Amino acid sequence: MSERVARQILASVLVNSIYAMKNYPVVLINTVLSPLAFLIIVNFVSKGGLLTQAIEGAFIMSMFSSGVGLQSDLSHLKNDFKLQDMVVSSPASPAAYVFGMAVSEIVYSIPALVTVTILLEVFVHPSAVQAATLFAVILMMFTTSVTLGFTLSTFTSDVVQSYAFSGLVSALFTTLSPVYYPITYIPLPYRDLAYLSPTTYAAEIAQSSIGTLKLSSGSVDIAWAVLAAVTIVFAFIAVTKARWREV
How far apart are CA 172 and CA 175, in angstroms? Predict the structure, then answer.
Protein backbone atom coordinates (compact mmCIF):
# COMPACT_ATOMS: atom_id res chain seq x y z
CA MET A 1 0.00 0.00 0.00
CA SER A 2 1.47 3.34 -1.04
CA GLU A 3 1.83 6.22 1.39
CA ARG A 4 -0.71 8.29 -0.56
CA VAL A 5 -3.35 5.57 -0.37
CA ALA A 6 -2.67 5.12 3.35
CA ARG A 7 -3.21 8.84 3.88
CA GLN A 8 -6.46 8.70 1.92
CA ILE A 9 -7.72 5.85 4.11
CA LEU A 10 -6.67 7.65 7.29
CA ALA A 11 -8.45 10.80 6.13
CA SER A 12 -11.65 8.84 5.54
CA VAL A 13 -11.48 7.34 9.03
CA LEU A 14 -10.87 10.75 10.62
CA VAL A 15 -13.66 12.46 8.68
CA ASN A 16 -16.32 9.76 8.86
CA SER A 17 -15.87 8.10 12.24
CA ILE A 18 -13.37 9.71 14.60
CA TYR A 19 -14.96 13.15 14.19
CA ALA A 20 -18.45 11.85 15.04
CA MET A 21 -17.23 9.63 17.86
CA LYS A 22 -15.30 12.49 19.44
CA ASN A 23 -17.83 15.29 19.01
CA TYR A 24 -21.09 13.34 19.24
CA PRO A 25 -20.49 10.36 21.58
CA VAL A 26 -24.24 9.78 21.80
CA VAL A 27 -24.09 8.16 18.34
CA LEU A 28 -22.09 5.32 19.87
CA ILE A 29 -25.04 4.44 22.06
CA ASN A 30 -27.17 3.84 18.99
CA THR A 31 -24.41 1.76 17.40
CA VAL A 32 -24.24 -0.52 20.44
CA LEU A 33 -27.96 -0.70 21.18
CA SER A 34 -29.14 -1.54 17.66
CA PRO A 35 -27.82 -5.14 17.56
CA LEU A 36 -28.15 -5.69 21.31
CA ALA A 37 -31.81 -4.65 21.43
CA PHE A 38 -32.89 -7.57 19.24
CA LEU A 39 -30.54 -9.88 21.14
CA ILE A 40 -32.20 -8.98 24.44
CA ILE A 41 -35.73 -9.32 23.06
CA VAL A 42 -35.04 -12.72 21.47
CA ASN A 43 -33.34 -13.91 24.64
CA PHE A 44 -36.30 -12.88 26.82
CA VAL A 45 -38.91 -14.33 24.49
CA SER A 46 -37.05 -17.64 24.15
CA LYS A 47 -36.22 -17.68 27.90
CA GLY A 48 -32.54 -18.05 27.06
CA GLY A 49 -33.05 -20.85 24.55
CA LEU A 50 -31.86 -18.78 21.58
CA LEU A 51 -29.10 -16.83 23.28
CA THR A 52 -26.32 -18.35 21.16
CA GLN A 53 -28.18 -17.71 17.89
CA ALA A 54 -29.01 -14.18 19.02
CA ILE A 55 -25.35 -13.38 19.76
CA GLU A 56 -24.34 -14.62 16.32
CA GLY A 57 -27.19 -12.63 14.83
CA ALA A 58 -26.00 -9.49 16.61
CA PHE A 59 -22.62 -9.94 14.93
CA ILE A 60 -24.18 -10.31 11.49
CA MET A 61 -26.57 -7.40 12.00
CA SER A 62 -23.84 -5.12 13.33
CA MET A 63 -21.53 -5.72 10.38
CA PHE A 64 -24.24 -5.68 7.73
CA SER A 65 -25.84 -2.53 9.11
CA SER A 66 -22.44 -0.85 9.26
CA GLY A 67 -21.85 -1.57 5.60
CA VAL A 68 -25.29 -0.36 4.58
CA GLY A 69 -24.82 2.69 6.81
CA LEU A 70 -21.99 3.66 4.49
CA GLN A 71 -24.71 4.74 2.06
CA SER A 72 -25.96 7.50 4.34
CA ASP A 73 -22.46 8.72 5.18
CA LEU A 74 -21.34 8.80 1.55
CA SER A 75 -24.55 10.52 0.49
CA HIS A 76 -24.13 13.14 3.23
CA LEU A 77 -20.53 13.86 2.25
CA LYS A 78 -21.39 13.82 -1.45
CA ASN A 79 -24.49 16.01 -1.43
CA ASP A 80 -23.90 18.30 1.56
CA PHE A 81 -20.14 18.77 1.47
CA LYS A 82 -19.43 17.93 -2.20
CA LEU A 83 -16.59 15.72 -1.03
CA GLN A 84 -17.06 13.24 -3.87
CA ASP A 85 -16.61 16.07 -6.38
CA MET A 86 -13.25 16.83 -4.83
CA VAL A 87 -12.25 13.16 -4.77
CA VAL A 88 -13.22 12.72 -8.43
CA SER A 89 -11.07 15.68 -9.46
CA SER A 90 -8.13 14.52 -7.33
CA PRO A 91 -5.61 11.71 -7.90
CA ALA A 92 -7.53 9.60 -5.38
CA SER A 93 -9.05 6.44 -6.80
CA PRO A 94 -12.65 5.36 -6.14
CA ALA A 95 -11.32 2.10 -4.66
CA ALA A 96 -9.14 3.90 -2.08
CA TYR A 97 -11.94 6.29 -1.21
CA VAL A 98 -14.54 3.56 -0.70
CA PHE A 99 -12.08 1.28 1.13
CA GLY A 100 -11.20 4.09 3.50
CA MET A 101 -14.86 4.84 4.15
CA ALA A 102 -15.49 1.12 4.74
CA VAL A 103 -12.66 1.01 7.29
CA SER A 104 -14.20 4.05 8.97
CA GLU A 105 -17.47 2.16 9.36
CA ILE A 106 -15.62 -0.68 11.11
CA VAL A 107 -13.94 1.81 13.44
CA TYR A 108 -17.34 3.35 14.12
CA SER A 109 -18.72 -0.10 15.02
CA ILE A 110 -15.89 -1.11 17.36
CA PRO A 111 -17.92 -0.54 20.58
CA ALA A 112 -20.70 -2.82 19.35
CA LEU A 113 -18.27 -5.45 18.06
CA VAL A 114 -16.32 -5.49 21.35
CA THR A 115 -19.53 -5.87 23.34
CA VAL A 116 -20.82 -8.74 21.21
CA THR A 117 -17.38 -10.40 21.21
CA ILE A 118 -17.38 -10.41 25.01
CA LEU A 119 -20.86 -11.95 25.05
CA LEU A 120 -19.72 -14.56 22.53
CA GLU A 121 -16.73 -15.54 24.64
CA VAL A 122 -18.69 -15.64 27.90
CA PHE A 123 -21.76 -17.55 26.73
CA VAL A 124 -20.62 -19.52 23.64
CA HIS A 125 -16.90 -20.25 24.12
CA PRO A 126 -16.23 -20.80 20.39
CA SER A 127 -13.29 -22.85 19.25
CA ALA A 128 -10.68 -21.37 16.92
CA VAL A 129 -12.38 -22.96 13.90
CA GLN A 130 -15.80 -21.71 14.94
CA ALA A 131 -14.47 -18.20 15.54
CA ALA A 132 -12.73 -18.22 12.15
CA THR A 133 -15.95 -19.36 10.46
CA LEU A 134 -17.95 -16.60 12.10
CA PHE A 135 -15.29 -14.04 11.14
CA ALA A 136 -15.37 -15.17 7.51
CA VAL A 137 -19.18 -14.95 7.45
CA ILE A 138 -19.40 -11.44 8.85
CA LEU A 139 -16.54 -10.28 6.61
CA MET A 140 -18.44 -11.44 3.52
CA MET A 141 -21.63 -9.81 4.80
CA PHE A 142 -19.77 -6.58 5.43
CA THR A 143 -18.23 -6.63 1.96
CA THR A 144 -21.63 -7.25 0.39
CA SER A 145 -23.31 -4.47 2.36
CA VAL A 146 -20.49 -2.00 1.64
CA THR A 147 -20.78 -2.49 -2.12
CA LEU A 148 -24.56 -2.20 -1.85
CA GLY A 149 -24.29 0.94 0.27
CA PHE A 150 -21.81 2.55 -2.11
CA THR A 151 -23.97 1.84 -5.14
CA LEU A 152 -27.10 3.25 -3.53
CA SER A 153 -25.25 6.33 -2.32
CA THR A 154 -24.31 7.29 -5.87
CA PHE A 155 -27.98 7.33 -6.88
CA THR A 156 -29.47 9.12 -3.87
CA SER A 157 -29.79 12.88 -4.08
CA ASP A 158 -30.63 13.68 -0.46
CA VAL A 159 -29.44 12.39 2.90
CA VAL A 160 -33.03 11.94 4.08
CA GLN A 161 -33.64 9.60 1.15
CA SER A 162 -30.45 7.76 2.06
CA TYR A 163 -31.59 7.20 5.64
CA ALA A 164 -34.87 5.79 4.34
CA PHE A 165 -33.09 3.35 2.02
CA SER A 166 -30.61 2.39 4.75
CA GLY A 167 -33.36 1.64 7.26
CA LEU A 168 -35.37 -0.33 4.73
CA VAL A 169 -32.44 -2.48 3.60
CA SER A 170 -31.31 -3.14 7.18
CA ALA A 171 -34.81 -4.16 8.22
CA LEU A 172 -35.24 -6.55 5.30
CA PHE A 173 -31.83 -8.17 5.64
CA THR A 174 -31.22 -8.27 9.39
CA THR A 175 -34.50 -8.16 11.32
CA LEU A 176 -37.09 -9.84 9.10
CA SER A 177 -34.62 -12.50 7.96
CA PRO A 178 -33.90 -15.40 10.35
CA VAL A 179 -30.65 -13.97 11.68
CA TYR A 180 -31.40 -14.00 15.41
CA TYR A 181 -33.19 -17.34 15.34
CA PRO A 182 -33.09 -20.59 13.30
CA ILE A 183 -34.88 -20.67 9.98
CA THR A 184 -36.79 -23.71 11.26
CA TYR A 185 -38.92 -21.28 13.26
CA ILE A 186 -40.41 -19.97 10.01
CA PRO A 187 -43.41 -21.97 8.70
CA LEU A 188 -42.62 -23.94 5.57
CA PRO A 189 -44.89 -21.97 3.20
CA TYR A 190 -42.87 -18.83 3.95
CA ARG A 191 -39.42 -20.32 4.42
CA ASP A 192 -38.47 -19.94 0.76
CA LEU A 193 -38.90 -16.17 1.06
CA ALA A 194 -36.22 -16.09 3.75
CA TYR A 195 -33.72 -17.59 1.33
CA LEU A 196 -34.00 -14.49 -0.83
CA SER A 197 -31.82 -12.74 1.75
CA PRO A 198 -28.07 -13.48 1.83
CA THR A 199 -28.06 -12.96 5.60
CA THR A 200 -30.14 -16.13 5.91
CA TYR A 201 -27.27 -18.16 4.46
CA ALA A 202 -24.78 -16.33 6.69
CA ALA A 203 -26.83 -17.15 9.77
CA GLU A 204 -27.16 -20.80 8.73
CA ILE A 205 -23.38 -21.14 8.37
CA ALA A 206 -22.76 -19.48 11.74
CA GLN A 207 -25.42 -21.53 13.52
CA SER A 208 -24.23 -24.74 11.89
CA SER A 209 -20.62 -24.12 12.91
CA ILE A 210 -21.65 -23.69 16.57
CA GLY A 211 -23.99 -26.69 16.42
CA THR A 212 -27.28 -24.91 17.05
CA LEU A 213 -28.60 -25.79 13.57
CA LYS A 214 -28.19 -29.20 11.96
CA LEU A 215 -27.20 -28.88 8.32
CA SER A 216 -25.61 -31.37 5.95
CA SER A 217 -22.18 -30.60 4.57
CA GLY A 218 -23.79 -30.12 1.17
CA SER A 219 -26.17 -27.48 2.53
CA VAL A 220 -23.29 -25.64 4.17
CA ASP A 221 -21.33 -25.71 0.91
CA ILE A 222 -24.34 -24.29 -0.93
CA ALA A 223 -24.67 -21.52 1.64
CA TRP A 224 -21.00 -20.59 1.20
CA ALA A 225 -21.41 -20.63 -2.59
CA VAL A 226 -24.46 -18.36 -2.40
CA LEU A 227 -22.64 -15.89 -0.14
CA ALA A 228 -19.63 -15.83 -2.45
CA ALA A 229 -21.85 -15.34 -5.51
CA VAL A 230 -23.82 -12.53 -3.88
CA THR A 231 -20.62 -10.78 -2.81
CA ILE A 232 -19.20 -10.99 -6.33
CA VAL A 233 -22.44 -9.82 -7.97
CA PHE A 234 -22.81 -6.82 -5.66
CA ALA A 235 -19.16 -5.88 -6.20
CA PHE A 236 -19.64 -6.13 -9.98
CA ILE A 237 -22.72 -3.90 -9.81
CA ALA A 238 -20.83 -1.36 -7.70
CA VAL A 239 -17.96 -1.24 -10.19
CA THR A 240 -20.04 -1.13 -13.37
CA LYS A 241 -23.28 0.62 -12.44
CA ALA A 242 -22.45 3.08 -9.67
CA ARG A 243 -22.50 6.67 -10.92
CA TRP A 244 -19.10 7.71 -9.61
CA ARG A 245 -18.59 10.74 -11.84
CA GLU A 246 -22.19 11.68 -12.52
CA VAL A 247 -22.81 13.72 -9.39
Answer: 6
